[in-house]
Write a structure and sequence with these properties.
Length: 122
């Protein structure tokens, strides 16, 4: 069982940066791949990116590639999402999730956080 809590969301101007954190409970955090997803109001959930258990492999969705970076600190049971060059279309609730292995689909993830809102103003 893993419990996930996101933080770091807020309001930022276009072109700005934010760093989201996802803190996990449990001693098995380092065995999980971690993903970030987002969901804008009235839209379907979108894959943002994922990182493998060791942190040496990451994948990103096309809409954020080159702007967002995922990292993790297994000693702190935390995964991060660094978001740069933010655009108004990045506005969404952002969720972290844990899975046995990296995947692109939300159905592949077993545990989810409650989400944190990111709003990018133009």
């Amino acid at each position: 069982q893993v419990q996930l809590v996101e933080s770091g969301g807020g309001l930022v101007q276009a072109g700005g940066s934010l760093r989201l954190s996802c803190a996990a409970s449990g001693r098995t955090f380092s065995s999980y791949a971690m993903g970030w997803f987002r969901q804008a109001s009235g839209k379907e959930r979108e894959f943002v990116g994922a990182i493998n258990w060791s942190g040496d492999t990451t994948v990103y969705g096309d809409s954020v590639k080159g702007r967002f970076t995922i990292s993790r600190d297994n000693a702190k049971n935390t995964v991060y999402l660094q978001m740069n060059s933010l655009k108004p279309e990045d506005t969404a609730a952002y969720y972290c999730a844990a899975a046995g292995r990296m995947g692109w689909g939300g159905h592949e993830y077993n545990y989810w956080g409650q989400g944190t809102q990111v709003t990018v103003s133009s």
